[in-house]
Amino acid sequence: MDKPLPAPAAAAAASGPGAASAERLPVIAVVGPTGSGKSDLGVELALRLGGEVINADALQFYRGMDIGTAKISPAERRGVPHHLLDIMEVTEEASVSAFQAQARRAVDEIRSRGRLPILVGGSGLYVRAALDVLEFPGTDPRVRRELEDELAAVGLEAMRARLAAVDPVSAERLGDARRVVRALEVHRLTGRPFSSYMPRREYFQPALQIGLSVDRPVLHARLADRVQRMVDAGLPEEVRALDGRGLRSGRTASRALGYAQFLQVLDGEATVAEAAEQTVVATRQFARRQLTWFRADERIRWFAHDDPALAAQAESAVTAILER
C-alpha cells in the first residue's frame, strides 16, 4: 500500500511559514499494556493518515514467535507496511541500543517517503530509546570479564559497595549482579556514573504518544482469554518447533511470557493447563509493570481502549499536531 498523506498531514509536510518539513513529521507512538489493542489502532491510524508502522515490541523481533507474542498477521496489517518485525532468530539477544539505531533509521526512511512514522509497542524502554534523548555507553569484553571475576571472588555485596562509592544512585537502584557489573564497567570506561545515562523525558525529535487505558478487571479478563486463544491456536506446538531452533539458548526469547512456561510442558514439569495458568499470572504482572512505566510519563495522552470513537479521537490528536 502506498497511500499519500491526507490533506492535514500533507499540509504539515509542505514547506511554508509554520509548517514542518516531511523530515520533521512527528513520530506517533501507540503505547499501553499488553492486550489493550495497540496493534489494531496503529494500523487504523496508518490507514487514516498515510503512515507506516514500526514495531516496538521486543519479542516480536523474533521469527517464529508469532502466536505467543500476538504478532499482527499479514492479513491484519491491511496493507500497511510494518517495520522491525521478524528481524532476528530466537538464539540472538535483543539490544535496546541496536533497536534505537534501527528504529530511528526506519523513521527517517518513512519520512523520506512523505509518510507518517507510527511506533507501536509496549516495551517501555524500547519506546523511550526510539523517542527520547538516551545515550548508550559502550562495552569492553576485557573489562567485563575482570569485573565478573571480581564478583565471583568477593560477592555481590562487596561489588555493590564499590558501586556506591562512585555511583550511589545506581547502587541503590540495582540489585542483580549482571546490572551491578554493567554499572561498574560503564564507570570504568567513561568516568561517568551509570545513572547519568538514564533516559530523560525529553523527545529526541517531535513526537506524540497515545496511550490505551483498560480497567484492571477488564484487562485481566482479556488477558486470560487471550492466553487461552493462544493455546488453542497452537502455542505448545510453536514452542516445540522453536525449541528445535535453539529457543533455550536465546537469553531474551527463552524468557518470554508463554514460551518459558511451555518449555516446562516439553520437559514434563507442567501440564498444558498449568502452563497456561502460569502464563496468565505472569502476563497480568507484566501488564501491571507496563502501566506503572507508562503512567509515569505525563506526556502520554490516554484514551479508553473500548471507546467507539477511539480511532477518530486519536486521529484528531495527531492531526492537531500536524497542523501546528
Automatic annotation (TrEMBL):
Record site: Interaction with substrate tRNA: S123, R144
Claim: Transferase is one of the keywords in the record: yes
InterPro entries: Dimethylallyltransferase (IPR039657), IPT (IPR018022), P-loop_NTPase (IPR027417)
Cofactor(s) named in the record: Mg(2+)
GO molecular function, one term: ATP binding
Binding site for ATP: G32, P33, T34, G35, S36, G37, K38, S39
Keywords noted in UniProt: ATP-binding, Magnesium, Nucleotide-binding, Transferase, tRNA processing
UniProt enzyme class: transferase
Reactions accelerated catalytically: adenosine(37) in tRNA + dimethylallyl diphosphate = N(6)-dimethylallyladenosine(37) in tRNA + diphosphate
Record has tRNA-binding as a keyword: no
PANTHER family: TRNA DIMETHYLALLYLTRANSFERASE
HAMAP family listed in its UniProt record: IPP_trans
Protein function: Catalyzes the transfer of a dimethylallyl group onto the adenine at position 37 in tRNAs that read codons beginning with uridine, leading to the formation of N6-(dimethylallyl)adenosine (i(6)A).
Assembly description: Monomer.
Protein name stated in the entry: tRNA dimethylallyltransferase
